[in-house]
């Protein structure tokens, strides 16, 4: 296909609106908008259900079939794909050849297009069957939107109801739309169709189990413009994808100041970790800089919070707290004793809301549920010139997956703690070493270049916590330890043994596994291997 090199005339900044085509699936605000257009003398053209809604409101409206001379057909699949629609949108009003073609074929100009697309994303999110998802792929809508956006020199295009007021205001105050507004609307229009097509293509990839499609696109809708990014000199925004996974993107913020970039990142990390644990037993995760500084389960949520806090009370100051069950008043009262940035939970009772409400800067987020830690999904990371895309780490190790490789078998309590430790390990930056005792972390070493350094740091933190609490010995004495990847040498395991660990869980797979197993046997440790690694960079 060749592209015309013809020089087109310059359009005037202000363009009158004499005819508008409205075709929307979301009819929120439609009637008010249509009425305001009618009151300014704009002729209304519409399709299907939109036309009926406008007519039922007592407003004059011409059906698009009257414009084209063709009825809607093929179950509504074909209604706007016609030269009298696309010609009206694409015609350059000041070009003599275009004007002649319009007159010859009876094509009237369309100065305003208002379209929001079939609800494909919502249809997929509710778990609809394949055929229903396909029927909710809009064809005519994106085609019209792109046509109007291309011809924004003359045509204003609306893809979101939030723009109704600004368009009406300009028409009323200036007698038409300005180029600046039309450019802004065109920009949004192309972003909307790109996001829509990305959702469709990713749905196809997932449905067809195509893990590496030739082209990969991602899109989102602006939820929040942030004050800054990780640092004040960085610009940042928060976009949501429409995925209905419970979490920071879907949560309702009940109170507190606006979330920051770092708050959102840390809150996501906290809630994903809390979701690893069955709500039948209360769990708390405390996060600082996207790493856990304390995780615990308990008979009550307050007990879980106290145990999680005891792991590293210094780092917990100014942290993010996630709960796997409804936040209650007793737990909220304890949390409120130290400075906390964000609390996220599936729900909160009235006592908790009242107590947190007294802390004006403390954000409380309610999600309505927990994300499924074992559900599939994608994660995306940008690199220079590209994107790294991988499946979410939904790996899950059960008791039956463990292989005991030492002479000593782990006890029942050690096995429980080993599984707990490995679940936490999955959410700690590599290299990760986690000490756990009685369902609570007691030492966490994260993000070190050497695994033995992570083991030593975790043990040192446990000693600091013991001294702060006035205890005679650190809680790592009699604990278990988890490693996110294999021990390349025995030194990391020996460091854990020196800290008082009695049992170890690790993936295995090192060339020196035999050496590490022999060291564990020599120290009288029980060790299990999972065969699954949990690197997190």
Can you give a write-up of this model?
- With 537 residues, this protein is of the alpha/beta class.
- The chain is 37% helix and 18% strand.
- The chain has 19 helices and 21 strands.
- It has helices at residues 30-39, 48-56, 64-68, 83-90, 96-105, 120-125, 130-135, 140-150, 164-174, 179-207, 261-274, 301-311, 313-316, 329-335, 350-357, 412-425, 451-469, 491-498, 513-522; strands at 19-24, 43-46, 62-63, 112-116, 156-158, 221-226, 236-240, 252-255, 283-288, 291-297, 319-323, 340-345, 363-366, 378-383, 386-391, 403-404, 433-436, 441-445, 480-483, 503-506, 526-529.
- A six-stranded mixed beta sheet has the order 8-13-12-11-9-10, sandwiched between helices. A six-stranded mixed beta sheet has the order 16-21-20-19-17-18, with helices on both faces.
- Strand 12 (340-345), helix 15 (350-357) and strand 13 (363-366) form a beta-alpha-beta unit.
- Helix 4 (83-90) runs parallel beside helix 8 (140-150).
- The two termini are 46 Å apart.
- The mean pLDDT is 92.
What is the structure about, briefly put?
The protein is about 35% helix and about 20% strand. The chain has 19 helices and 21 strands.
The percentage helix is 25-40%
Strand order of the largest sheet: 8-13-12-11-9-10
What is the radius of gyration?
A: 30 Å
Given the helix and strand composition, which structural class is it? alpha/beta
Secondary structure: number of strands: 21
Q: Low-confidence spans: pLDDT under 50, at least 5 residues?
A: none
Kindly estimate the percentage of residues that lie in beta strands according to DSSP. Answer: 15-25%
Q: Count up the helices.
A: 19
């Amino acid at each position: 296909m060749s592209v015309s090199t013809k020089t087109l005339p310059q359009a005037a900044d202000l363009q009158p609106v004499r005819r508008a085509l409205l075709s929307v699936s979301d009819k929120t605000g439609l009637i008010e908008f249509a009425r305001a257009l009618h009151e300014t003398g704009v002729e209304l053209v519409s399709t299907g259900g939109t036309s009926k809604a406008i007519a039922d409101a007592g407003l004059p409206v011409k059906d698009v079939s009257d414009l084209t001379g063709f009825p809607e057909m093929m179950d509504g699949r074909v209604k706007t794909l016609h030269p009298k629609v696309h010609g009206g949108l694409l015609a350059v009003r000041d070009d003599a050849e275009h004007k002649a073609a319009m007159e010859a074929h009876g094509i009237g100009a369309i100065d305003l297009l208002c379209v929001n697309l079939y609800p494909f994303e919502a249809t997929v999110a509710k778990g609809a069957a394949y055929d229903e998802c396909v029927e909710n792929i809009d064809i005519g809508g994106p085609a019209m939107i792109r046509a109007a956006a291309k011809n924004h020199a003359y045509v204003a295009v609306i893809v979101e109801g939030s723009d109704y007021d600004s368009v009406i205001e300009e028409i009323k105050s200036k007698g038409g739309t300005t180029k600046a507004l039309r450019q802004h609307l065109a920009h949004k229009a192309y972003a909307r169709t790109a996001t829509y097509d990305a959702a469709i293509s990713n749905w196809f990839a997932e449905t067809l189990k195509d893990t590496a499609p030739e082209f990969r696109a991602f899109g989102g809708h602006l939820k929040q413009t942030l004050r800054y990014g990780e640092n004040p000199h960085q610009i940042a925004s928060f976009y949501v994808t429409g995925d209905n996974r419970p979490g920071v993107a879907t949560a309702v913020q009940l109170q507190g100041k606006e979330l920051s970039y770092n708050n959102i990142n840390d809150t996501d990390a906290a809630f994903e970790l809390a979701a690893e644990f069955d709500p039948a037993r209360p769990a708390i995760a405390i996060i600082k800089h996207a790493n856990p500084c304390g995780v615990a389960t308990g008979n009550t949520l307050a007990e879980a919070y106290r145990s999680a806090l005891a792991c590293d009370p210094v780092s917990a100051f100014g942290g993010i707290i996630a709960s796997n069950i409804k936040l209650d008043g007793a737990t909220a009262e304890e949390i409120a004793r130290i400075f906390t940035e964000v609390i996220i939970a599936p729900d909160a009772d009235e006592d908790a809301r009242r107590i947190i409400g007294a802390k004006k800067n403390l954000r409380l987020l309610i999600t309505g549920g927990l994300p499924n830690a074992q559900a599939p999904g994608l994660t995306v990371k940008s690199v220079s010139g590209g994107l790294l895309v991988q499946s979410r780490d939904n790996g899950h190790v059960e008791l039956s997956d463990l292989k005991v490789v030492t002479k000593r078998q782990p006890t029942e309590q050690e096995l429980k703690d080993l599984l707990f430790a490995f679940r936490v390990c999955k959410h700690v930056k590599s290299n990760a070493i986690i000490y756990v005792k009685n369902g609570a972390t007691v030492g966490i070493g994260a993000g070190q270049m050497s695994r033995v350094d992570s083991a030593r740091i975790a043990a040192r933190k446990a000693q600091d916590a013991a001294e702060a609490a006035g205890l005679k010995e650190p809680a790592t004495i009699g604990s278990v330890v988890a490693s996110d990847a294999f021990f390349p040498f025995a030194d990391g395991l020996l460091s854990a043994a020196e800290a008082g660990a009695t049992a170890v869980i690790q993936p295995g797979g090192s060339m020196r596994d035999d050496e590490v197993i022999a060291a564990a046997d020599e120290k009288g440790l029980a060790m299990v291997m999972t065969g699954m690694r949990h690197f997190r960079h």
